[in-house]
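Researcher: Good morning. I'm working through a list of sequences from a screen, and I'd like to move beyond sequence-only analysis. For each chain I'm collecting a predicted structure so we can compare shapes side by side. This is the next one on the list. No need for commentary yet; just the structure.
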Amino acid sequence: LEEIKRVLKPGGKFFYMEHIIGDEGSTIRTVHKLLMIGGFWPFMADGCCTDRATDKVMETAGFGKLEQKKYDMPTSEDAGISFTICRGILKPHVMGVATK
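Model: Good morning. Structure tokens for this chain:
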């Protein structure tokens, strides 16, 4: 984030969207933490981390203005089983715009 802030011009915008760790006390949060033990999930998913709280990190990153929204990844009735399983794991997301 420091590099992003460095290269943005004043008033420049950083758009982001990422899956995030589940809410405190939720079952999905426990699953996210378990998947990270021993590097299993990052190995299986090309470096993906299920335990990042990007929404919280962005709130303290020092941007001049921050607009973000948490949401659950949408699905459809005709989604395949592999997508349905992955969606269950990666359901919580955040998207936003950070302005320098």
